[in-house]
Amino acid sequence: MVAPDDVTTFLKIYGKLHLGETECLCLCKQLKVPIFLTDDLGARKEAQRLGSVGSLGIVARAYHLGVISLLEAEKYIMELDETSSLFVTRVIVQRALEQLRN
What pTM does this model have? Predict the structure, then answer.
């Protein structure tokens, strides 16, 4: 269950998401885990609001840390859009590509 020091976050999120996703987000915040992977759009929006990074953000971060090249990052983002079951809109893909280049 959610730790007592995270009750405020829990109450802000609870009702918008399922209990399990709510608890995971609260745990990420409490443990300062910057990455939360989920296939639920509402959970991804809440994670982003709390400062966690999703799949596209992981690719961008890997590029900015020098782990992968710009060409590789662009390729991975396009593959996430075109071949994975991850739901992303064209606008989100374009923002992710812009983030790479900035």
Answer: 0.56
Angle between helices 90-101 and 70-82 (to 10 degrees): 170
Q: Which amino acid is at 30?
A: Q
Given a contact cutoff of 8 angstroms between Cβ atoms, the answer to whether 59 and 71 are in contact is no
Q: Are residues 67 and 90 in the same domain?
A: yes
Tokens of 27: 């745990």
pLDDT digits (tens, 9 = 90+) for 51-82: 766 777 778 878 888 999 999 999 988 888 78
CA distance 87 to 48: 15
Residue 71 sits in which domain range? 55-101
pLDDT at 4: 54
Contact 43, 56 (CB under 8 A): no
Together in a domain, 60 and 41? no
CA pair distance 80, 38, nearest whole angstrom? 14
pLDDT higher than 60, residue 2? no
The number of domains in the chain is: 2
